Model the fold of this input.
Amino acid sequence: MLVTYAQAINAAMKEEMQRDKKVVVFGEDVAQFGGIFGLTRGLLDEFGSDRVKNTPVSEDSIAGVGVGSAIGGLRPCIEIMYSDFLLVAFNEIFQSAAKWRYLHGPEYKVPLVIRSAAGSALGAGAEHSGCVESLFLHSPGLTIITPSTAYDAKGLLKSAIRSDNPVLFFEQKQLYQVKEEIPDEEYLIPVGVADVKRKGTDVTVIAIGLMVKRSLEAAEELKNEGIDVEVIDPRTIAPLDKDTVYESIRKTHRIVVVEETNKTGGLGAEFAAMFQEELYDELDGPVVRVAALDVPLPYNVKYELASIPDVKRIVSAVKSLF
Amino acid sequence: MIEGTIAEWLVHEGSEIKKGEVAFTYENEKTTIDCECPADGIIHIVAKAGDIVKVGDPVAVLAESKEEYEAILKNQDADKQEKKDMLELQKESQSSQQGIEKVDWEVKTDMTTQNKGRIRSSGLARSIARKNKLDLHMVNGTGPMGRIVAKDVEAYLNVMKSSGTVDEKPVRTPITSIRRAIANNLRNSVDTMVQASSSTEFDVTELFELRKRLVDQKETIGWKITINDLLVMASVKVLEKHPLLNATFDGEAVTSYPYVNINVAVATESGLSIPVVRNADKMTLLELSKVLKDVAVRAREGKLKPGEQSGGSFTVSNVGMYPIDSGSPIANAPQVGLFGFGRPVSKLAKCNGEFCERTLMHVMFTFDHRVFDGMEQGKIMQDLQLYLEHPELMLI
Amino acid sequence: MSYSKELLLDMYQCLLSDRLMEERLIELYAQGWVPGHIHSGVGEEASYTGVLATRKEGDQFKFTHRNVSAYHDVGLTYRHIFCEILGKMGGNSDGKGGINHIADKGKGIIGISGALAGDIPISVGVSYALKMQGGNNIVYCFFGDGTTSRGTVHEAMNWASVWKLPILFIVNNNQWSISTSASEGCSIENPGAGRAAGYNIISKVVDGTDVLSVYDGAKELTDYIRAGNGPAVLESKCYRWRGHFEGDMARYRDSKVAEEWHKKDCLKKFEQYLKENKYITDADVEKMKIDVEAEIQDGIETSEKASQPSLDTIYNNLYV
Done:
């Protein structure tokens, strides 16, 4: 069936709520309104007000109540409207969700999914457009998922809801309305498995979220210049599927990381450090990062477009390795 | 929001609609939104469901009357032509902006690390080179900034393979610490001194005769005197007569020594060794011979004690056991001179007015030209000649 | 209110055990036995004992860094507690959590957030899960007067009220948050109960030195919560006898005030009440003391003998 990325996410929640009564959904404006991006539309009608609930404007507690209800035996799949607001709830996610099991012992599980809308939305401004994924890489215990297609989003969200670990699920605002054919029948995509979105032999591009789409476009341009690009979407950035990524690096020996996150301390920073440390002898050049400029994402759309990597920048970065 | 997609029209083309009535729904980057009609009128739909519309572009036109609606339908084709595609406009303006404005996102590579003997190469290139025991100095880098990348190493290996020399490549061996010390000393000598060398052939027939007689008496002496012992002894005698030669020079002052501490060059497995025989001027030939033997043996075994190679006032080097006649040996700075002895050769030479077979030997003399000139050099060589040709004098 | 003899003796048993444990922790800390900090709750035991006497099977508990002796009241053994304090095998986390994370899921322990009040929304989450289960179980969420100034306390109280969740917030008001007095941190008299009003939550202030007063208040509020009326706040007024942690000599406060509070010793008061009403004799008390001390001693000795966790398990329990 042809669905948008947003509809795929909605379908995943619906299917899992049908399958398991313990799955509950709460967050700001998720009930009657169906979420400001419309991701939870229809859930209240189907599953009722005990399982689909609006919350006060208390992000810290949305995360905290999420952790608690997960410890208490539910499988909450909660929404924190903009991923920028995850920082309001930083302590609950970074300290509590991530560490609870480690600190209290194996009897404790936190089967929590926090969905959040990430990235540029063209004119949404600095506190509604951020990509904060990398901040959470620093907290062992968290699973971080960044789907780039409707197919991946659905299969991964279903697996995330079934996971007994706390999961941060970053949805890309600019992908919400992108349509794609997905199977009618139920399917799952395992957490922690990367996907080779395009096979190639000359250079590996690791792209996250919206950047997967742009990297694929860049790959087509580079093909005309005789550079055969392999594009890998890790899909789960923590824990990273090193097997798939490393296999590609061992083949191409060149690597570019493309992300929408600010460059300093971003995902590429961590990945580059990891690759040079573990695969130095495989690298035929530096690990190149293509990332957002180190500015709070400006409001003006011209600024915004210039801040975030586009196809041109990806092409240029790849070419710098040849 | 810069554009939206028309999701669905809830009113029909040409229908009369009221202000506040939901006319259509559209999707933006975030969500689906109902769009209410801003005024009463008859609607002419411009953008179909599924169309992507830029903010500011018309989606429909409202006519106030039936006549106006008809007129709009008539003119719509003309309208279309007049309007430039907004999308194109934006593209144009963006590309023109990009022409003059530039965001600084280029990766800045440190260009200051110029090649100070370092090789710029990738990890993979190094790894392949290591596996093939290839010196990266041999490879030309064609990567960014001249970096040697994998394909450069592979190309080099392929060429080597096809020319069949892959197994005969030069071997680069780092020098030992002893060799490094020797190298540094020689470098220092050449850098700090103004060295000049001369070479003269002397008749050493009598010297060899004397040596033969001493060897014949080895039972009596209890020791076997060598030619080298006699050459060193002759050198010591010359040094006693020439304080300027038994000296060091630091660029400011010449220091002459009241004793002769003579360095003797000894070839060893790990490189040249120059043990010092101290107070050689106070020794008999026998004593000197024994000390020389002792230090030579210990130098070859690497058993010299720290300090046993320093503090010399002059150096002698004997290469007579090899087919070397002459050369320009390097002096041992800050000493001001060095004698080198070449191989003895039997030749016809004039002796007592006749040509007869004599034993001749080149003696090389390297000296610091800053300290003395040709005249002093000549006098020294005269004295050395005297002792070598009349060796009995050195026993006095 | 009338009390069964069984209830009174149970409460006394808990109060006595907690007192002996809190005192013993002070002693152990002084001997350098404890790797981390000890926040002794000596003198504040009634706030826990009186409340916990109202608990039912299936209830859930969120305790604090102080009064870790309360874990014993809900069924954890001293062996378990001391092994966790020492970071040894035999606790719940194999050396990863420590004194702030003593836990037992089967006994209804939720756990603790080391960043104070991070666990209040978590307790609210557990109460939501309890509500979804049906039944009349509740969450007992303990915290101190100092913690009431954290934003999450307010978010959580508001949330619990809006969702009508089965949770009792127990504010153990010992009047000090480290060296800051309650009045320096909050300008209303009752930082727990007073603020509850703003969230339309019912509350009671009880005398934390009188275990029966605490019990009465807790009983009334937990009955109210169990009946499906939503959350309540119980504020128990007592006094922190010791410094914030062992080693803090509490020189920032008037020692005369502390002496006055020492006279209102919750254990002595209750003991006197029980003796006057002929529930117990001196001999009973002596025997109970000997038994409790033996159990504590056994816990300490067991933990000392317990093995250290193996380094190759350091990554265990990070992910399921």
